[in-house]
User: Fold this.
Amino acid sequence: MKSINGILISRWGPAITGAFVGAAASLLVYFGNPGNMGICVACFTRDIAGALGLHRAGVVQYLRPEIPGFILGAFLAAFLSREYLPRSGSSPVVRFFLGFFAMIGALIFLGCPWRAYARLAGGDWNAIAGIGGLTAGIGLGIVFLWNGFSLGRASRSPAWAGAVMPLAAVALLALLYLRPLFGPEGTGPVFFSKSGPGAAAAPVAIALGVGLLVGWMAQKSRFCTVGALRDLIMLRNGHLFSGVAAFLVSAFVVNLLLGQFRPGFESQPVAHTNQLWNFIGMALSGLAFTLAGGCPGRQMIMSGEGDGDASVFVLGMLVGAAFAHNFSLASSGAGVTSFGMTATVIGLVFCLAVGLLLRIKLD
Amino acid sequence: MSEAFVVDARGLSCPQPVIETRKALEKHTGGPVEVLVDTVTSRENVARYGESHGWKAVKEETDDGFKVTFTR
Assistant:
């Protein structure tokens, strides 16, 4: 185990993790997850919001076991290597809304950065505009970072404070196992889609196993798809970017082998062809993720390590997903809604204000 | 050895510890520069940054985190 962790910590760690996540994303589609959505932190968090009844979009409700898997895998990896470090206090409410608007942007595009790369590797060329927007959003975030943007310092919390998210992950898995359906019409309080993307799911054991492994590997290697572009642009450092490159290659190869590579713009699974809003949606997400310090996958991993601020960001994403569907903000295969456009502009104004106004002077 | 310039990057989110390290290393070109961090991630990130820019990085554990000392 030590030698495997040693490799994951090394300079090859992000690439090995990226290759695994990419291959797993394509394989999970083969095993039943929605098209080009083998792994998507935003979409799966949205499905969980639906399963918990926080929104009632019937086609996207499922307790995706990958998400608790990420948190628990990261928790175990961190705990066993003495990296479990409960901490919080770095502008948590701002982080909540960064998570909220990151989710709005992701659901305008229809995917988190992981899915953006998975879509590209599946031949969905609409992802190109999304990745372009993501890069632009990260670039804007870098301008703020160079000019002293900071959400302030976190400080240490009591040991048990960091156990809340891992315990919540266990609770989600318990709800998935127990499937409580004692609502008035034989459904709820937990909801499971009968059709649509929420009904497309790989077997629980496979999904959870992949989630745990990804959580473990990403905790050790610090795999981050936003940090990848940020460090490449900002510091000319390709350490994390090797993970994204490996993700793209392995997801593409596995898609090719499984006959899942279908190039084109039209009729792509869970995608629309409005390139302007694909770009703007992901620009909002990219900016929010950069201001918060990492992509949604990385925020999940950090929440498993005991980072209370990352946990608040994740909860913001969960609530953002609920609002996205309750307020008709989320896009669909039919395209973007005018409500969604408005919310994206509000989100951009919020993130720009955060980037401009929040700073601390060190020393 | 002259007295080290100290950067306190404890509790800061990614990538601020690296930004502060970079600022300090560019300002104090002769070193030494000490960077205080509180997570293994930040320790590795700042050490990797310094080493890729020609500095020698020595990592130590402290009471509440880590200290990375950069020398030329």
Q: What stands out?
A: The beta strands of chain B are 5-8, 33-37, 56-62, 65-71. The first strand of chain B starts at residue 5 and ends at 8. Helices of chain B lie at 16-27, 40-51. The domain at 5-71 of chain B is CATH 3.30.110.40 (Translation Initiation Factor IF3).
